[in-house]
Amino acid sequence: MGALGQLGSAVLRVCEPTSLLLMIAGVTIGIIFGSIPGLSASMAVALMLPLTFSMGSSLGMNVLVAVYIGGISGGLISAILLNMPGTASSIATTFDGYPMAQKGEAMKALGVGIVFSFLGSVFSFVILTFFAPWLADVALKFAAPDNFGICFFALTMVAVLSSGNMVKGLLAGMLGLVFALVGLAPIDGTARFTFGVAEMRGGFNTLTTLIGIFAVADILVSAETIGSGVKTIPVKKVRGFGFSIAEFFKWIPGAVRAALIGTGIGILPGIGGSTSGMLAYVTAKNMSKHPETFGQGDPEGIVATETANNATIGGALIPLLVLGIPGDGVTAMMLGGFLIHGLSAGPLLFVKNADVVYGIFAACMVCALIMLIVEWTCIKAFVQVLKVPKHVLLPLILVLCAVGAYATNNRIFDVQSIVVFGVIGYLYHKFKLPTTPFVLCFLIGRMTEEYLRRGLMRFKTFGAFFTRPIFCVFFAIAVGVILWSLYKEIKAKKNS
Amino acid sequence: MFFRKYGDIIIGIFYTALGAVTIWLARQLPKSRVMKIGPDFMPMVIGVLIVFLALMLLFSAVKNFKANAAKAEAMPADTSDYKRVLASLVLVVIYVNILAPVGFILSTLGYLFLQIVVLAPNDRRTAKNILTYAVIDVIFVFVVFFLFRYGFKIVLPAGIFTL
Asked: What is the pTM of this model?
């Protein structure tokens, strides 16, 4: 039977009532976990893993896929409504989503996010279904120097994000790099900057860092002005998804670009949705005819981020299914799911368990549709959050964040570290330092060092990196980005 | 006013010190015996970059101090309510430190109620409001507790009292 035939019969199996109901439940649980700051998609998959034990292998994997898709997409809800990314993947959604919500366009922002999450997912699933083995071969060609090139390129995005006051933006990012150094060094495991504190040997957790920088800092910032009275944010009612057909078609080129970035980054193990969302956002801003509107509530910012982070799902499933390599925490959990069901992810999976593989492909498509319907149905319920007065809402969120931070590793240290990052976030606000470079550098700093050192272990000298075309391309783009940003900065200074 | 007027100078001094400490700590780290770069390489690079950028900022801030100070003074006065900020920070610090020994239920009941009252505008602190906050506090804490403990199977700190 050809690929299309196998896919067709898998779609029929996936659409059986029991399977459909379980996937709806899975997507909904994923959305709940994704939308609560502090709870993550990987936590949701970990929670559902034992529940799938009693199911058949195909059904079990489909439910896990449902949770994964819901979990990544759900992050946009809190990012837009509360300025707190539910997951690391939706950090860049806050940049334009929250300003839109503040202008009364919360429903439109959610509509844009939901539709382009769906389209990003579908794009990557089509790629996954038809090009998985070929793309897995491409992924295998990426060695450590190439990944270092990508990370270095992503780091140079700080320069773009900091345009207007580059020195301050770069310094803001440097503190993120310093925090990324804390813990055991990659490769040799030397303890760095741990000051004898055992808990610091594991470094600071990404989720707790985000919670601190966004949630705790927001409480402190809000406390400055909250006494002047209760402000309610208006919510404009919208028809459909809140945007016109003309707007939709105008955003499509940007969405395709973001989907390619998302799927491309997803294929490379270890880089992840948070990086792809950021990269897509910065690329969209750079290529826009009106970059000054980004960060002020431009729907194109949401289009870029949400398309990219959801497109990462399909990309991340490629090395998992074809090579048995998990790219991030969630796919590592999914690999656990394969083991529980007696399946071995890798090239033989396509031969021995083609029904499971095509079941996953079909489930991806169906779950993306379920996600669209569930989120759209609940959109009016989501915006009710804006009606809760801020002085009540913020403490409730902080408690959820604290619980989420604790649940990540069952360590009180993680809860305590949210205060440290909260204070940093507040001071950044007071000193007009942008938090985005901090978050970007924190996320990518460790990876950059790891790939650099791995590359040097294998290729001995940094000069040897230049024998690799993939590294050369990314390095050249990165240098170009730096030079272009410097040129723009100097030109702007001269004009002012 | 203070942040606007002296902000860049403070940032410059802070980051110069941070860079210097990073370099100093990097020098304490062992060098790799098998590779050209060891665990000290990245901290050293970051430290040097921080010092370089911080000095650039400091130089520019000092050079333009008079112009920036005049701009800052022309802007409206800072009306931020720092008492509320400080009270919130103290509450959060206490909460995260008593969460384990006292337990989720009792510490959150106390923190949540006090935090809502601290953040509430003055006209929202009537007896009726306070009672509403207390009800929200109790309902929310128990809903979260039961949802996480029995729904998501996530064990929360038990401390001296749990269910």
From this structure: 0.85
